[in-house]
Amino acid sequence: MQSHSADLLPSDLDQLCINTIRFLSVDAVQKANSGHPGLPLGAAPMAYLLWSRFLRHNPRNPAWFNRDRFVLSGGHGSMLLYSLLHLTGYDLSLDDLKNFRQLGSRTPGHPERGRTAGVEVSTGPLGQGFANSVGMAIAEAHLAARYNRPGFDIIEHYSYGIASDGDLMEGVASEAASLAGHLKLGKLIYFYDDNRISLASSTDLTFTESRARRFEAYGWQVLVVDDANELMMLEKTLEAARRETTRPSLIIVRSHIGFGSPNKQDTFEAHGSPLGADEVRLTKERLGWPVDPPFLVPPEAQQHFRKAVDRGAELEKSWEELFERYSREYPDLAKELRDTITGKIPGDLSGSLPNFPADPKGMATRIASGKVLNALAAKVPNLLGGSADLNPSTFTALQGLGDLEAPGFAPKDRQGAVGGEWGYGGRNVHYGVREHAMGAISNGIAAHGGLIPYDATFLTFSDYMRPTLRLGALSELQVIHIYTHDSIALGEDGPTHQPVEHVASLRAIPHVVVLRPGDANETAVAWLLALERKAGPTALILSRQNVPTLDRARYAGAEGVRHGAYIISEAPEGKPQIILIGTGSELPLVLGVQDKLLERGVRARVVSMPSWELFEKQPPEYRRGVLPPEITARLAVEAGSPMGWQRYVGDHGDVLGVLDFGTSAPGTAALEAYGFTVENVCKRAFALIGMAGEGA
Predict the structure, then answer these.
(1) From 88, 277, 616, 680, which residue has the greatest number of CB atoms within 10 Å?
(2) Element (H, E) at 201
(3) What is the Cα–Cα distance from 428 to 391, expressed in whole angstroms?
């Protein structure tokens, strides 16, 4: 190995840097005795080329807004990314690399957003990072269309990534790739690390279609590099990808997993396990690398990589100077963009909400949500989103605010259009029937920054979004998920569409706040909370059927939603004998039960509990005030799985829920069949407080 930078030819320096990435990764995996060495060994050349010659970023300010985004979708190869971050000058030390996969480490087994400087999204579950990148490219295209002006390309950057065979096997990547091609996202460029080995076998056993022809059919530019180690060809190909402005690009790079390993190259043994001490030694010898010391960073390589620090500072400085000139030329746009970048929202939003007067007929909370959403979107310019082909049912179209489509898009008809601009500046995202990708793309939009995304589907189809919900929560990304048709009350579509276990399963995901409002005014407050909440996803659970708009002169104001649970109607004339807990569309039912019980001389307190998570964040004295421990007769009513409600009703309480999959019948008949009637709830209440009677 050469030892003096003056003696190194450019090609020698490149090879030195590539091998530095390789063996930092291999040594970290070996020290941890855990990890995936094969991907870094094979993909190091493409990663080095991108990071040293193309990627616009600032290691000293990973949050610089106009940076290029990079996503390692094959997150199992995380040491490739950690090596790049350390070498190019991010706040990630050599000791951090040596602490790979250990407790409290800043180099966890798979990249985690928020734990490691420079990691854009949490990846590992395959296909997710790829779909996140589509969201990032959508965000860049939208913000550029909204804010760029002639001579002022304030928003102008690429979204790059490396995907593995496993990424392209997963359906979420296929869904996202299809939409990316339709939207003509020319600034989305992916290297496909085509090493043809998965964790358990050769891909020949399961994955034999032409990936190139598949992506061409999606509308992507497909380019091929036959040898991952041909740096000049990689460079020319990446330049060609950057020149293509109307198609995303997939660069298929034929690589060798575990490259250089005499006994494990091109085998699945190099995928998910350390090479072993002997094989590490042999691999280093084969590639001309010193066996010792481990974690070697030659000074020449470090000096070359660290040029990214000064280069990044200069890039950001030039951008800030451009922004200053832009601010003088377009002060209103500049202020709005600054606010969106920093996540600032107007402080007077409550005054912009529609007024929902008391109405015994009321409206479905999905309809109320649509009215609130449109009122808020008029005041919050960075709010955008859409549904999985369900706008007429989820009421999530932003009227008159345009459809986000590729410039020049001309549909055969405009059914489903909402009016306004057709192009990247539109704020309605049409996802098609792609729930899984919709959630992952929304995560990518949120991770990009500057935008607050929402998405929507029926609650039962949240099952298709579970991986994206979990990763959004893990990453604490502000995404607003709208789930309508929230119970068996949706009716005739039957058990395939009637959610039962879904709300309980959403409540089980850490960092997700679930809000199930009970009427139109609770829905309005829930939306404000979702906009204000930055540190994780919010799920709004909304009804298909009408629910009464409650008379707030009689009942407590809907601002109590902010506490997660509140006393909406106190027991008259003395201490309550029983506490009735209602949530969502069952809240009016519980209030009706309170009136019926009073006719029989039973004093009941009614608690509205739209959010367990928010209630748990309240001080203990508040929670005890709403649910006093001494009142043990408690009955919770929710038209879904009763799982988890025991924590609020206690050992002596009861839960009326649904223990089956529902039934195909009109919504009112389905509710009656499962006991969601005033008479049945009264009967259960009487049983709790030891009284006889049918409740009728």
Answers:
(1) 88
(2) none
(3) 10
- The pair of structure tokens assigned to 207 is 């994955």
Confidence of residue 8 (pLDDT cuts 50, 70, 90): low
Confidence of residue 3 (pLDDT cuts 50, 70, 90): very low
pLDDT tens column, 629-688 = 999 999 999 999 999 999 999 999 999 999 999 999 999 999 999 999 999 999 999 999
> Structure tokens of 606?
């009614």
The reply to whether 344 falls in a domain is no
| Count: domains in the chain | 3
* Cβ neighbours, 10 Å, residue 294: 16
Residue 449 belongs to a domain with what CATH number?
3.40.50.970
Question: Do 529 and 577 sit in the same domain of this protein?
Answer: no
For residue 320, tell me if it sits in a domain.
no
Choose one of 496, 515, 549: the last residue of a domain.
549
- Backbone phi, psi, residue 462, to 5°: -60, -20
**Which residue in this structure is represented by tokens 């489509």?**
405
- Does one domain contain both 619 and 679? yes
**Residue 169, both tokens:** 């096997």
Tell me the C-alpha distance between 46 and 70, whole Å.
Answer: 13
Answer whether residue 658 is part of any domain. Answer: yes
Task: Give the mean pLDDT of the chain.
Answer: 95
Identify the helix (H) or strand (E) that includes residue 30: helix 10-32
Distant-in-sequence, close-in-space partners of 122: CB < 8 Å, separation ≥ 6: 75, 110, 111, 112, 113, 471, 474, 475
Percent of the chain with pLDDT over 90: 93
pTM (two decimals):
0.96
Residues 374 and 308 in one domain: no
Task: Name, in order, each residue with C-beta under 8 angstroms of 247's C-beta and a sequence gap of 6 or more.
Answer: 181, 184, 186, 219, 220, 221
318 within some domain = no
The reply to whether 466 and 497 lie within a common domain is yes
435 is an active site residue:
yes
* Rounded mean pLDDT, 458-481: 97
- Integer-rounded Cα Rg, in Å, for the chain is 28
Cis ω for the linkage preceding 125 (within 30 of 0): no
Please give the Cα distance from 279 to 263 (Å, whole number): 7
DSSP calls for 640-663: S--TTTHHHH-TT-EEE---S---
pLDDT per position as a tens digit, 262-315: 999 999 999 989 999 999 999 999 999 999 999 999 999 999 999 999 999 999
Q: Judge if 20 and 136 occupy the same domain.
A: yes
| Length of the chain, in residues | 696
pLDDT band at 413 (very low <50, low <70, confident <90, very high): low
Instruction: Give the active site residue among 120, 279, 435, 586.
Output: 435
For residues 452 and 524, state if they share a domain.
yes
The strand pair at 538-541 and 249-254 is best described as: unpaired
Report yes or no: 406 and 437 within 8 Å, Cβ to Cβ.
no
Alpha carbon distances (Å) from 355 to 8, 88, 484, 601: 72, 54, 21, 35
Q: How far apart are CA 55 and CA 307, in angstroms?
A: 12
CATH (domain of 612)? 3.40.50.920
Which candidate, 291, 375, 398, places its Cα nearest to that of 27? 291
Whole-angstrom distance, CA of residue 211 vs CA of residue 254: 13
- pLDDT by residue (tens digit) across 76-98? 999 999 999 999 999 999 999 99
Q: State whether 481 and 421 are in the same domain.
A: yes
Percent of the chain surpassing pLDDT 70: 96
Diameter over CA atoms, the chain: 96
The CA distance from 190 to 241, in Å, is 9
At residue 416, the pLDDT reads 62
Domain enclosing residue 519, as ranges: 349-549
Same domain as 435, residue 301: no
